[in-house]
Every structure is written in C-alpha cells, then in structure tokens.
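Practice set, problem 2.
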Amino acid sequence: MITLIGVDLAKKGQEFIFLGPAKECEDCRFKSSCIGNLEKNRKYIVTDVKENEQKCSIHSGEKVIPVEVERAEIDILTASKSIFEGSTFTYNAPDCDENCDYHDLCFPDGLLENDKCIVLESNGKHKEECKKGLKLNKLTLGFVI
C-alpha cells in the first residue's frame, strides 16, 4: 500500500508504528492517501520509496514523500508448544503482569489481540528463563489478512 512519510524517514527497510493521525491531518488534502490505508498501532516497513515530495507541516523538514509499505514481521516470545514454523494461529496476549527485560517480546508493538498470524520462522528456545518459569520460544510472525 502507498502512504506518505517524512522524507528523513523514507528509507527502504525503515520500520514504524502508526500511532494515529495528528490533529493537523483532519483537514489535509492528502489525508486519504497518507493515513487512509494505515491502521492505528500497526507496525509497517517501507518496501519502496517513490518520488514527488509534498509539503507537510507535521514532519521535520516539512516535507513528505510517497512510500510503499506493508505490515512488518514481528518477533515474539511464546510459551505455546503447538505453534511451529508454517502454522497459523490467533494471537492472544499472555496472562502475565511481570515487568521484565523480555516484556516487549511477549507483548510486541504492532500485534493486536485476535490477530491472525502465520509463523514465518521458528528461532528456537529462548535462552533466558521467564520470571514465571515458562519455557519460551522465539518466533517471527507475519499476518494472515
């Protein structure tokens, strides 16, 4: 999908989380092509940079450029033993209130409750022990849309 991004961020491979539109976006003539296709709290990756800069007061440099983006892959830690490379599942956040060094991998940005996911890669067992005593596996996920 095509969106607009600040020129300083417009690099192939750049990842970002769309946190929602700024107030200034409400009346912008580029609103539909800029934020119209993006979902709030999703993680995207820039796959191609186009040409044709436009003015935009909310980005540094006050310019945006069209880029092609797709949902980014997400790394996650899970205790599930029934999830393996190539399998699909529905993500449900773990029942955990621990604040540890791995919290961001158990509750990764860009992954929402009830998302349909596919395991792109199984990265084996996580070497560090979970504070709750769980045996964790590290996975790289894609999305089933």
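Problem 2, part (b): a different protein.
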Amino acid sequence: MKFRIFFLLITFFTVSFARNVSTQEMISQMIVVGFSGAKPGDKWVEQVKRDIRGKKIGGIYIAKENVKNFGQVKRVVKYLQDASKKPLLVLSRPSNYREFTTENSSFNLNSIKNVNKIFYQNLRRAGINMLFWPNADIYSNPSHSDQEDIIVTYLMYEIKVLRDEDIVPVIGHFPGKVAKQNSWEFSQLKPYFELIKHNKIDAIALDSSINRKLDSSNIATFSSRIVRNVLREKLKFRGLIFSGDLKSSKIYKRYEFRDIVIKAVNAGVDILFFSSYFANSTNVPREARAIIIDAINSGKIKKEQIRKSYEKIIKFKKRLKR
C-alpha cells in the first residue's frame, strides 16, 4: 500500500512538473546525439557540453571514434554528465569497444557470465548507463532462428547480467529483420513478447526497414501501426521507444530531415537517436527542435505526444545512477 501511494505521488509530481516545463526543454529531453572528440577541450566535446548546459539535449552516444580506452571514456562522460542537472542518457554499442568480440556476442551462458560481465562492469565504471544490446531479433542469430525458447532464455540471462551492473539494455531491433517478406509470421515476435511479459525490457530500439506484413508503407521507425498498434497495444510495452539511427544512410539519404523528425515523433517514438551531430547545414539539436516546434504550431504534431514522451523520460531518469 505504501509503495502504491509513493508511486502515485511520484507520478503526480512528474506530471505537475511537466506542466511547468517549456516545450523546447521537453523536446530536448527526447534527443540523443553522437559527436566527435574524445576528451575535454576537443571542439565538439565542448559544443555538446554547451548544449547540455543549455538544456538542448537529453542524452549522448559514445561511438567508436570517441573510444580509446575505458579510462578515457570515463573522463569525457563524467565531464559531460557534470554539465547536466538531470542525469544524461549515455548510450553506446558493444561493438564500439575492442574488448568486445564475436565470441562473447554469441548465445553462450559461460561467455555471458565470465566475459560479458567483466566487460559490462568496465562500461559502467566508464559511465555508460544504457547499451544498444542485446538483439531479440531472431534473424540476427540465424543458427537459432527456429529455437525461439532458447533465444529467450539467453536473452533473459544477458539482460540480468546487464541490469546487475546498472546498465539498461535497449533491446533491438523491433520488430526484427525480415529474411523473406512473404514468410514473416507473428511468431517471430515471441522473444519480444516473452521479455515484455516478464518485465525484462525498459527500452526498445526500432528497426529501419519495412515489414510489409505489419506496414507496407513505412519503416518501423516511422510506423504508427508497428509502434502504437503492435508494440504498445498488442504487446503492452510501456517503456521507452528509441528510433533507429536517424542519421543512418538507410534513412538520411531517402528522406528530408524535416520528414524524418516529424514521421518518427508521430509514429510514437520517445527518443530520437542521431549517431552524429550535424543535419544539413546546422546541428541536430537545434534543427530537430525547430522542426518539432513548427510542426506543433502548424498542427502536424500534437503537443500532448511530446509531453507524454517527456514524462516517460523523466520518470525513467529518476531511476538512473549517474
């Protein structure tokens, strides 16, 4: 009973606080961006720090180009975290680190326990609090594509190891790759269904390809049918939803930047993920924010959608450890 009252109070204050936050700040919390540089003093590290202080972004992505060793990553992450009043989402991928190999990315319990655990400990000490990993996509592991139960078992174990190290896994890449469009079946969603059912997923990243059986017109990141109808309504997922990389060539070369931002928000995406800092002739945070504000003013985006995403993000950040 006490926990229920506490939860209701937290929800009430989160919602009340959101009512007094500017639209620009709410939008900024939805933006995660990558950048160049590997140490304090580097030009774009300093630019990102200014953006953080100015409440223009809600998270950062540590890419391969930002990584020399764990100690160096720790210094730059701490430098940027210290510039923010709210905890930053600090994301990365295992493949950005030379310590991560194809051997310890396989479905092997001993590898997860003995190798991945140490790797995750080093990542957490370096300040990484979220990881684009593991993939619940059956076809990312073709040798196990007919063994969904085995995949679920390994995924649950991997997620437990990550959570034990205070790293939040961002499960990819929903709804999964399509080996053959006409052969795709809903059974391929079983790993996601089981993980959501057992409360093992806090965040999901969307795929950047078209699944014609779910939505013949839009990639998953732009699909309200996939995000709202399948992921939210049918699978009952209540966590954070990340876009695919909105600066990937698969997306960025096919769509205008304005359309990319509006389509992702209207699909129901909570976090707009950009692996690099620049869009067109200006920077991503400024351009994305301006596009969303203009779309709200013109009625192309509902402000309530922004508020809902913001409230989910702030509630999630209250659980994060810096």
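Answer key, part (b): DSSP finds twelve helices and ten strands in the chain. The domain at 27-317 is CATH 3.20.20.300 (TIM Barrel).
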